[in-house]
Every structure is written in structure tokens, then in C-alpha cells.
Amino acid sequence: MIHNLGESNSIFNQYMAEIRDVNIQSDMLRFRRNLERIGALLAYEISKDLVYQSEEIQTPLGLATVPMLHSNLVLATILRAGLPMHQGMLGIFDKAESAFISAYRKHNKDGSFNIKLEYMAKPDLKDKILILSDPMLATGASMHLTYKALIADGKPKHTYLVAIIASSEGIEYVKKNFSKSEVSVWVGAIDDELTAQAYIVPGLGDAGDLAYGKKEDR
């Protein structure tokens, strides 16, 4: 159920190192580009798990039989931090439909927070493959809430939950709140610590702020 790309040696880990490195991540353009590249590599790995059907392709010299993707995909992401990652995945799954949802933490005076959903634009998900991505899977609550909102009008065949960095607590939350037949999880790394404010340690900081600039607190 859990696929961790960071456990294998590949160029993927160089991009992971760069988005974590405080001396590199201050370059917003490079940070966004690395999110895109990580998203593309995650999409490529997920593509190996999808359904294919052989088709004949006419070349200038004859016919070639090629396995072609035979899954209807919807790429969904959580605004705003998820946009570069989404763009990287869309570069791989260029025929996929897209869905966008706005979710943010509404902080309370006691230090706690609630997850607020304000906007959603999506196609029909019934019987399609949903790939829901967000750079960080911290507590897992926002991913779960987003998923429930997306499937309210129609359930996909299967859902891939994708995060660049997850916390161990977030992974356990997903295991408890999703069935294996319902979703699979694809991440770039799993970090053990989660602070009282639900930030992953060592993590990388606030992905949205690093990609687009610091936002005002809400």
C-alpha cells in the first residue's frame, strides 16, 4: 500500500535533497522546478501500476504494436502548494483531466487548527483513476477531508494519494481511515517527527511559502 521512492537510489533523491536544503530552497524558481521534477518522477512510477492495452501504430515503414495507457485519469491537487507538483505530473499524464480544491488550516487562539475547504473544481470521477497530490502529508486529516469532498458525487475506481514528504503519523492515519482496496500511497520520503503545530521534522518548511512567497496568517 505504501510506496516510498526515496528508499531506492536514483536521481529522485537529488531533487529531494535540494528541496530540503535551506541554502538552495530560498531560490523560489528552483524550488518550484524541483517540485515539478519530483511530481513527474512520481507520476512515471505510478504509470507502471496502471492498465495498458496493446494498440497497432502505423509508422512510415510498417505497423508497431505498443502497450498504450488504458486508464481514464484525473489529477487532483490542493491549492496552492500543490500546483508545481501537479504541473509535473500533468507533463507525464498529458491527457488526464484535472481537479483543484482549496484547503487551508484555520488556526485557533489555543494553537489548534481546523481544516477549511473553500473551493473545488472537478470533472466527474465515477469509475476513473484519481491521483490526489499534495507536497506534504502531515496529520493526514486534510488529505482525507479533501478526498471525501472530491468523491461526494461519484467514487473513482482507485485513488493514488501522492505526497513528496509524509510523516509517520500521517501514514498511520491513512492506514486507519482508508482501505487498501480504496487507495495506495506514493511518497518521496517518510519523516518520523511531527510537531505540536503539525509540521513535519525534518521536513522542508512550508512548501507553499517556499514556492510562491510568504502568506499572511489566517
Overview of this protein structure:
The protein is of the alpha/beta class. It has a single domain, classed as Rossmann fold (3-Layer(aba) Sandwich), CATH 3.40.50. The chain is 30% helix and 35% strand. The chain contains six helices and twelve strands. The strands form three sheets. Strands 1, 4, 5, 6, 7, 8, 9 and 10 form an eight-stranded mixed β-sheet that branches. The protein has a two-stranded antiparallel ribbon with strand order 2-3. Helix 1 packs antiparallel against helix 2. The longest helix has 20 residues. The radius of gyration is 18 Å and the shape is globular. It starts with a strand and ends in a 6-residue tail after the last helix.
Short descriptors:
218 residues; Rossmann fold; 8-stranded mixed beta sheet; 35% strand
List the helices and strands and how they pair.
Blueprint: E1 2-4, H1 12-20, H2 28-47, E2 52-59, E3 62-69, E4 73-79, H3 83-92, E5 97-107, E6 113-121, E7 129-133, E8 136-137, H4 141-150, E9 158-167, H5 168-177, E10 183-191, E11 193-194, E12 200-201, H6 207-212
Helix pairs in contact: 1-2, 2-3
